Amino acid sequence: MKFKAFLTDNGINLLEKRILPALDKMGRVCHLYLTRDHAFFLHNLLSVDGVHSVAQFSKESLFHDYRISSNNDDRIAFSVDLSLLHRALRSVLAVRDSNSNALLIKLVKKLPPNSTQATPFLTFEARGHRSAVVQDVPVSKPLSRADVHELHLAVESCEQLPATLVMAPELSSLHSFVDGMKHVGDVMGVSVSKYGDLHLQISTSLIALGAEFRKLKVLGERADPVAEDNGLSAKTRVERGVQRGDAMSVQVSVKHFFKSLQCSLAKPDCAFFGIAPQGACLMVFFQFFVPGTRVTDKSFSLHCKLPVLDTGSS
Amino acid sequence: MSSAAAVDTEADLVCELDSVRGIVDALCSVRWKRFQDALVELSEHGIVIIVEETGCLQAKVYLQRELFIKYDYAATGRPRFGVSLGLFIDCLNTFSVHGRSNVLELRYPGPDMQLMLRSVDSPDACIYAEIRTIIPETISWDYNFEPAGSTPLSFTVKSAALKEAIDDLEWPGSSIQISLQPAPPSVIFRGEGHGDLQIDFNYYANTDLLIAFSCDRQVSHRYKYKFLRATTSNIPASVLKDNRGSKATIGRGGMLKIQHLVSVAKPSVPHPHIDSAGYQQPSRIAYIEFFVKPEVEESNADDD
């Protein structure tokens, strides 16, 4: 089992400034899953609870001279502490001579002090002007063949795409709004309609607090808003939409929703919300443009899947 | 939001405000514990929010109608309702963080006697809230604050200095004596408990600190530390930053009244009229009043 690659400048920037800070908020520990062509950072994919998040990178977006081999179809997966990874990366960068350009990352087995058993590390190596620096980040033992297979299936299972996606309103204001909502309740109803409406509501015995965003951009199945709905309350509008089959509603944890919005630290250009068929989960897709264009950057992607809370109804 | 036309004619009050942040500041200053019920009283002059604790401490926030950009009052009498103060603040906070300038509409009552809030600045993005109100338990016990004599016993001190003094008195603890004396004109805070601590504000020594002073005879009363602390513990940062003053008055029976002024100006509009006493356009100020009952005293010869 071998993994060795050099991080590109673009890759360093992406990881250090955007991806790692965002993913760290999602959860300290994640799986790093490496294949011949892609690298994935995966949260909670092997557990039932929690926000599933998938950050996928083509190898070219992060690395050059990418070499991987394993007897499991050249796939390697292990778990890693993101804040340690982030710290190690920053410390290497601080010492690195930016002209030398070579920042090596590799998987090694080392004998830690006071131990007789070698344990795996993800190691960064860089050469500075007069010095060289090596940072070892402890990682878990590689996942078993069965677990890797399960991870692989979980990544692939994202094919169950929502029929309708609506573009999120400005993320920073949505983020601060949901931050405030956290104080009011734990469960949030989220509705997405084919008319381009996104409705968020917390309802407790003491308060109903919500936000309705209308006329958002729609991807996938769409429908024209019904004129007679205009004078109605947001809640009634959602109910009517659901009855007509033009809207879907699910209940999710406010904390999960807030976590998924933390991905805005990765500086996406926009985000889309959608509800998977049969209300299986709420999905949030973050879209990144090739810098200076309005063209989607296909070399990496980030999305979250929020588990739906069972409310006992419908 | 809901069948607007029908509600409009029935609402006791529909008002709009453009500085949610300032209102949150004002309300936070009377929030001294996590779970507090507040009594809200509506009138043609504005909204008063009253919070009480065990009959010894009462705070009032006055939001005069001038603070609102629209104030349509249609009730007869003065509608009163109870609401959870913490929830009200948390709820207002979600409106204020929405970014950019935002206009918030308050409406009472809703179809089920709720307090209804919604943002009205954007047609395609609406934040709304319906807060359940409760029937106020009993008529709020009104502090009959009467002057202690012909000359008011009062002093005005920098809010920051007052807060600092009261914070420092935490160390000696439970009971704090406040004395005013005419010669030399000074205010003395004294705490005795785990140790002694005395803080003197001398009028002549530092007129910057003690801005105004009025006292014709020596007077002194003791107050529970935790109640004194409540009067300054959540004073908004804007008050300290604007270098405002707080006024303290001792009334009949030793009742202590402390008044703060909280700016509810839109942060984007700088006000040119800030002098050392913290004077701003009166229309953009919320008034906060605290009333603290003195401890029952064995000897207090100086007061009637």
UniProtKB/TrEMBL annotation, chain A:
Main localization of the protein described in the UniProt heading: nucleus
Provide the Gene Ontology terms for cellular component.
Answer: nucleus
One GO BP annotation here? DNA damage checkpoint signaling
Where is it localised?
Nucleus
InterPro entries from the entry? HUS1 (IPR016580), HUS1/Mec3 (IPR007150)
Alphabetical keyword list: Nucleus
Question: Which one Pfam family would you cite for this protein?
Answer: Hus1
Organism domain of life: Eukaryota
Record family assignment: Belongs to the HUS1 family.
**PANTHER family tied to this protein:** CHECKPOINT PROTEIN (PTHR12900:SF0), MITOTIC AND DNA DAMAGE CHECKPOINT PROTEIN HUS1 (PTHR12900)
Q: Which named protein is this?
A: Checkpoint protein
Q: Which organism is it from?
A: Salvia divinorum
UniProtKB/TrEMBL annotation, chain B:
Q: Where in the cell is it found?
A: Nucleus
InterPro entries xrefs = DNA_clamp_sf (IPR046938), Rad1_Rec1_Rad17 (IPR003021)
Q: Which GO terms describe its molecular function?
A: double-stranded DNA 3'-5' DNA exonuclease activity
* Coiled-coil portions: none
Transmembrane helix is among the record's keywords: no
Q: Which SUPFAM superfamilies match?
A: DNA clamp
Keywords recorded for this protein, A-Z: DNA damage, DNA repair, Hydrolase, Nucleus
Q: Does the keyword Membrane apply?
A: no
Q: Taxonomically, which superkingdom?
A: Eukaryota
Q: What is its EC number?
A: 3.1.11.2
Q: CDD domains, per this entry? A: PCNA
Annotated GO CC locations: nucleus
One of its GO biological process terms is: DNA repair
Q: Under which main EC class is this enzyme filed?
A: hydrolase
PANTHER family per the UniProt record, alphabetical: CELL CYCLE CHECKPOINT PROTEIN RAD1
Similarity comment: Belongs to the rad1 family.
Question: Which named protein is this?
Answer: Exodeoxyribonuclease III
Q: What is the lineage of its organism?
A: Eukaryota, Viridiplantae, Streptophyta, Embryophyta, Tracheophyta
